[in-house]
Amino acid sequence: MTEQEFNEILDFAVDREREAVQFYRDLQKDAKFASQIEMLKELEDMELGHIEVIENIRRKRVSEADIPTVPNLRISEYISADVEELDFSYPNILIRAMKREENSFKLYTEMSQKFPDGEISLLFRKLASDEAKHKLLFERLYDDWIRAGN
Length: 150
Prior knowledge:
The chain is globular. The mean pLDDT is 91. It contains 5 helices and no strands. The protein has one domain (3-147): Up-down Bundle (Ferritin). Helix 1 runs antiparallel to helix 2 (34-60) and helix 1 runs parallel beside helix 5 (118-147). The protein is an all-alpha fold.
């Protein structure tokens, strides 16, 4: 993989994260309660952190050892709600976030399979793994909320 190809892939990933930042900023405008706005701001900050992670990959590359196996609770996959129709309650914000991370995970996984170049595939697998970690975070928060009897 050329340096230009590597950087183009990372630019694509950064653009996806910037879209996520904007997604949470837009949700903040629609939120009705301070606690919702605060949570959405935290999610926005998390996405900004993802950009930093990607930029670190740009500087040091990625190896097989950088790709952990991430458990999948599959909560997101079992939720069939149209996220655009959901209100801004705590569980629905988590569902929106889970679905967004699930879609990013699927995209990067598909991309990793479409490129025969081992380094490009490895890079997309790393990005998919990072999205799986984010999805797991939201699934655990959602699971905790359900277990609390809500």
